[in-house]
Amino acid sequence: MSDAIKVPTMAEYMAQGKQPEVLFWVGCAGSFDDRAKKITKAFVKLLNNAGVDFAVLGTEESCTGDPAKRAGNEFLFQMQAMGNIEVLNSYEVKKIVTACPHCFNTIKNEYPELGGNYEVVHHTQFLKSLLSEGRLKVEGGKFKGKRITFHDPCYLGRANGEYEAPRELLQKLEVELVEMKRCKSRGLCCGAGGAQMFKEPEEGKKDVNIERTEEAIETKPDIIAAGCPFCNTMLTDGVKGKDKEGDIAVMDVAEMIATAEDF
Amino acid sequence: MQYIPNILFLIALVVGVGFFTMNIRKVIRNIKLGHGVDTSDHKAERWGNVFRIALGQSKMVVRPIPGLLHIVVYVGFIIINIEVMEIVIDGIFGTHRIFSFLGPVYDFLIASFEILALLVLVGVILFWTRRNVQKLKRFWAREMTEWPKNDGNFILYFEMILMVLFLTMNAADLQLQQMGAAHYTQAGSFPVSSFIAPLFENFSEATLIIIERTAWWLHILGILIFLNYLYWSKHLHIMLAFPNVYFGKVVPKGKFKNLEAVTNEVKLMMDPNADPFAAPAEGAEAPAKFGASDVMDLNQIQLLNAYTCTECGRCTSECPANITGKKLSPRKIMMDTRDRLEEVGKNITKNGEFKPDGKQLLGDYILHEELWACTTCNACVEACPVSIDPLSIIMDMRQYLVMEQSAAPMELNGAMTNIENNGAPWPYNQMDRLNWKNEA
């Protein structure tokens, strides 16, 4: 399938004197992490299928600076931000979609003061709008009737108040959506935020991702749905830690739609 | 001689209110040790928050049981204060039930006070049970020993005693009214204390007057003492919750502030025309300190947050780090900030200005280990019923650790070096960023 995907870059668009309707910000995880790359490709398939005129920055993209900022390195964050803003502004980017809630939050909330003003949407929000515009069709397919629990990414949910877009997409798949004990505004973090992804946890009784995975398992799901590459990694590790990888899959909402539609 | 009670009352009132005012001035002085923040934005939203979150208690009821109990006590507290107005006027002028000319309205008011007093009493007893019998986990955490633990109970005892005194006073008054005692005019309706009054049935008029006067005096003196107790207690939230909610965060929770001092430096670095060897301009300010290591480095809202915190622990009970047994507790961050601020304040009161005491918030109160356990998930901020933001303090202290002391955990230094060198937290070449496109 991979040879079938079309991923134009901003530079190519520029060379043709064209402007895409949206820039897909892939993010570091989406570019380099083996698991997250699958999410990236699934999302691209959906974009291709819906005929969305998009482009990526490719090798001109760099870390948004989110982990640096949350680790306390404001200096490095702003260096990254200004560099990215320079690139984005030189391409006159107006709208950005990303599958990473951390990139989403940083570009949407923290770039404007530094000179980067764009309309930024999370990929679940973007897919929802494709559905409502009729550009993308989603039907039950493979996941019809399956028990799915959705894990709210902190930087999409609490940080930016978006709880419904991913759930509406899941409902379109005609799944049986079951909520965890802690969900939406009271959802428990997967344990990766605030640069925790890149360090060992402090001493404690348990790892956060195990606690969260146990809550997810309590709902007896067939699939744990996620909307963030870092949550995905943490929960996948958690499921493995609980020896449940044979029974429970951890999937991004975009991957589920792409799989259901056999793209 | 007949004016002695009035004079004593006036003295008690002036001393009680005066002493409290003096301490509140200290609170304000201490809060002003922090940086100023521009809060002239989002006025409508801020007032909306005050009505919804503070007055309307919208976040309290996220947990229905303590939320409803709290509303009972809160409404009782506000409404019964109307009665305190009458008590103060009576005390100054030597009158008795000055508002009784209101007739049926007065009956209605007194009846509501009584019912609320009973509900408050029940509510407070249930609160006490939750703390001491049910032993809810959040009231028995590491930071909830000694003073914080006793403080929580003292407040409940105060409120129990005040309500009992209020009802006893009314019961004795009712009995005196029924006996036709001089000075005790028939006024008020007593749906609760009429059940206590029979206890006083065979008491003489003189005894009843002693009971009524004693309860009256102890009740108002108790209120004045309680008012002054607030300064030493977590209970300041009954006043500070309102301004605190007004000044609470009104932008998306995920938006962390960008440090302006850093922006200037970064712009300078990226400006090809800037002279890197230029001497600082004449009279230029010393370079700003990045982040916070002590309370003076925080802003005024963060310090107001610390005084407002009533140590309910909802933040801590939602914190993923705390839930999984790490040392971090957002409530402790707030308590430490207040304790250190009080210490700095005492130092200033004693020396006229702050004399370095060899201590600071970071390290002496808040440990590095606590700061590094935070996932910045905002659960604590979401949970706080009065819009306190412990996360902002954690972030400011991380900034100090990283930018002033280069004291980040080793693995994080690795990730940051990668970001600096190749634009990703992992050691992959930026030129390989699009390789996924061609991978199977």
TrEMBL record, chain A:
- A GO molecular-function descriptor: 4 iron, 4 sulfur cluster binding
Q: Which Pfam families match?
A: CCG (PF02754)
Ranges of residues in domain Cysteine-rich: 22-108, 148-235
Keyword Cytoplasm annotated: no
Database matches in InterPro entries: Cys_rich_dom, HdrC_iron-sulfur_subunit
Output the Gene Ontology cellular-component terms: plasma membrane
State the UniProt keywords alphabetically: 4Fe-4S, Iron, Iron-sulfur, Metal-binding, Oxidoreductase
What is the annotated signal peptide range for this record?
A: none
Keyword Glycosyltransferase present in the record's keywords: the answer is no
Superkingdom of the organism of origin:
Bacteria
Annotated protein name in UniProt: CoB--CoM heterodisulfide reductase
Which organism is this entry from?
Answer: Cochleicola gelatinilyticus
UniProtKB/TrEMBL annotation, chain B:
Which keywords does the record carry?
4Fe-4S, Iron, Iron-sulfur, Membrane, Metal-binding, Oxidoreductase, Transmembrane, Transmembrane helix
Residues crossing the lipid bilayer are: 6-24, 68-89, 109-128, 154-172, 214-232
Residues in 4Fe-4S ferredoxin-type domain copies: 299-331, 363-396
Q: Does the keyword Hydrolase apply?
A: no
Which Pfam families does the record associate with it?
Fer4_9
- Report whether Transmembrane helix shows up as a keyword of the record: yes
Annotated GO CC locations: plasma membrane
Tell me the GO molecular function terms: 4 iron, 4 sulfur cluster binding; metal ion binding; oxidoreductase activity
Matching entries from PANTHER family are given as: IRON-SULFUR-BINDING OXIDOREDUCTASE FADF-RELATED (PTHR43255:SF1), IRON-SULFUR-BINDING OXIDOREDUCTASE FADF-RELATED-RELATED (PTHR43255)
What's the protein here called?
Fe-S oxidoreductase
